[in-house]
Amino acid sequence: MITFIYPEKEIAKAAEFLLLNLQTQKILLFYGEMGAGKTTFIKAFCEALNVEDTVSSPTFSIVNEYRYPNGIIYHFDFYRLKNQAEALDIGLEEYFDSGEYCLIEWPEKIPNLLPENYLEISLEVLPDQQRKLTLAKI
Predict the structure, then answer these.
(1) What are all long-range contacts of 76-85, with beta carbons under 8 Å and residues at least 24 apart?
(2) pLDDT reported for residue 106
(3) What are the Cα distances from residue 27, in Å, to 4, 8, 51?
(4) Distance between CA atoms of 79 and 62, rounded to whole angstroms?
């Protein structure tokens, strides 16, 4: 497990930290309470990858697709899922098998659909308004 603590204004450094620690992992699960900064962090991560598109929360569309110089990033938000079958209906397994980045907010909504290998990223707001980023390889 690896931890990185940063002030919110240095989120770009935290995104670079994540990029340096990914190795070959492209399926990233983002955990954190509502308001912990999952979407904000994903925006910073996409900026670090030079995403050409506008990055926004896919809360209502479930998945957004962004282009970057080396491929595509799929950004999922499963907060509003009623059941895991809805994730299967959008072709989740094909996304996982694509070899592209899959950034998943609220992965706890699809526990039985997660692939074998992924990186867990936990975000937490600390009492002094700093952020704590924790990485755990699965």
Answers:
(1) 76/102, 76/103, 76/104, 76/105, 77/39, 77/105, 77/106, 78/104, 78/105, 78/106, 78/107, 78/109, 78/110, 79/105, 79/106, 79/109, 81/106, 81/109, 81/110, 84/109, 84/110, 84/111, 84/112, 84/113
(2) 96
(3) 19, 24, 17
(4) 8
Token digits for 122?
Answer: 């936990």
Segment holding 38, helix H or strand E: helix 38-48
Confidence check: pLDDT of 114 > 90:
yes
Q: What is the pTM of this model?
A: 0.93
Element (H, E) at 29: strand 27-31
Q: Is the confidence at residue 138, as pLDDT, over 80?
A: no
In angstroms, how far apart are the furthest CA atoms of the chain? 42
pLDDT of residue 111: 95
Model confidence at 83: pLDDT above 70 = yes
Q: Which pair of structure tokens corresponds to residue 53?
A: 């598109």
Top-tier CATH class for 2-137: alpha beta
Which residue type occupies 34?
M
Is residue 59 pLDDT above 80, yes or no?
A: no
